[in-house]
Amino acid sequence: QLKNRDGGIQFQGGDLPRLSTVVTWALFLDDLPILHQLLPSYQLRKEVKQTREVGWVGGTAMFVRKKCWDEIGEFDEEIFMYGEDTELCYRAKKKGWKIMINPKISVVHLGKGSGGGKAGWVIGEVKGLLYLFSKHKPGWELPLLKLILKLGMGARWFVFGILGGNEQLRKAYGEAYLLV
After folding, report:
1. What is the pLDDT of residue 55?
2. CA distance 58 to 30
3. How much is the pLDDT for 35?
4. Is the distance from CB of 149 to CB of 129 less than 8 angstroms?
5. Is-contact 28 21, C-beta < 8 A?
6. What does each C-alpha distance from 128 to 1, 18, 37 come to in angstroms?
7. Over the chain (180 residues), what is each successive 10-residue block's mean pLDDT?
8. Is-above-0.90 flag for pTM?
9. Around Cβ 22, how many Cβ atoms within 10 Å?
10. Contact of 173 with 156, CB cutoff 8 Å
């Protein structure tokens, strides 16, 4: 379980990326009352109160059994940060390993500190998803993913950057939109 400096919960992980889980996340469906409980999402948006299986966990505080590591291999060197953890978990799940979050064990995470406080994580997330789909999914899914991301990044640019007045997020989501 990741925690902020103040002891608050920092959400991490979620369902493995599929077109449906990316739609739920990108179009804010996981933020809507009732729907967030019914629809699986690429990003987990609730506190984990007991050990549970998920599709992926953040590499921030990931523990991997040696037997699993030996079986699936190392992190993919094509992904530096933001997405490398999801891709590793994707390969582990394909081999039958379970991915778990245990809230009894916690780690304080300074949250996006490696990115220098900038919103570079937005671009990293998008690049990670594009890479994962191009590597592991059927070719017909990539154009659909790009459409979903285009809609999602445009919506996030408008909500967080324009309505929310956050200049960093406006730039980051604008760049992500153009990247897709």
Report:
1. 95
2. 19
3. 81
4. yes
5. no
6. 22, 13, 25
7. 84 91 92 83 84 91 94 93 93 96 85 61 92 97 98 94 90 94
8. no
9. 22
10. yes
Q: Which two tokens stand for residue 175?
A: 């760049």
Q: How far is CA 156 from CA 26, 132, 172, in A?
A: 8, 22, 10
The identity of residue 159, as a single letter, is: V
| pLDDT of 77 | 92
Nearest to 86 by CA among 27, 19, 131, 24: 131
| Residue 117: per-residue pLDDT | 52
Residue for token pair 């699986």: 40
Distances (CA, A) of 112 to 22, 24, 35, 120, 164: 21, 23, 28, 9, 20
pLDDT at res. 109: 80
- Nearest-angstrom CA–CA distance, 66 and 99: 14
Integer CA distances (angstroms), 7 to 62, 71, 110, in order: 19, 35, 11
10: its two tokens: 């920092």
Distance, in Å, from the CA atom of 112 to the CA atom of 9, rounded to the nearest integer, reads 15
- Residue type at 38 in one-letter notation: L
